[in-house]
Design brief:
The structure is a single chain. The chain is α/β, with parallel strands linked by helices. It has a single domain, classed as Response regulator (Rossmann fold, 3-Layer(aba) Sandwich), CATH 3.40.50.2300. A five-stranded parallel beta sheet has the order 2-1-3-4-5, sandwiched between helices. Helix 2 runs parallel beside helix 3. The longest helix is centred in the C-terminal third of the chain and has 13 residues. The radius of gyration is 13 Å and the shape is globular. The C terminus is likely disordered.
């Protein structure tokens, strides 16, 4: 069974790009436009991993990540924050909110696929921005 990846980003083009990149590598992609929609989709679709943008309307990625970590059913769900914000403070905030990894846009396909594969297999990598 193909791993299910929830891509959460308010930009249509970013979601489309990630869908095209990951579908070719055997991932099933579902999409949400903001943090609240992501929380609703996770409850019904139970993805294996979440790629979460930071800056979104309605609910930002930091808040969505904190909520996911506070719920027993999603406390260990792998989360990758993917953002255009590359400042150390933003990276630190993403990891402190509960993300497993913080990656910056633009993202390379090999790096993203490797990160997803590592998180799905339980490989621990410590990042200290």
């Amino acid at each position: 069974m193909e791993p299910i990846v929830l891509v959460v980003d308010d930009e249509d083009m970013t979601r489309k790009l990630l869908r095209l990149m990951l579908a070719r590598d055997g991932f099933t992609i579902i999409e949400a436009e903001d943090g609240q929609q992501a929380l609703d989709m996770i409850a019904e679709s139970q993805p294996d991993i979440v790629i979460l943008d930071v800056m979104m309307p309605n609910m930002d990625g930091f808040t969505a990540c904190q909520i996911l970590r506070s719920r027993p059913e999603t406390a260990t769900l792998p989360i990758i924050m993917l953002s255009a914000r590359s400042q150390v403070e933003a990276m630190r905030a993403g990891l402190q909110s509960g993300a497993d990894r913080y990656m910056t846009k633009p993202i390379s396909k090999p790096e993203l696929v490797q990160t997803i594969t590592e998180l799905l297999s339980g490989v621990a990598v410590v990042e200290n921005p």
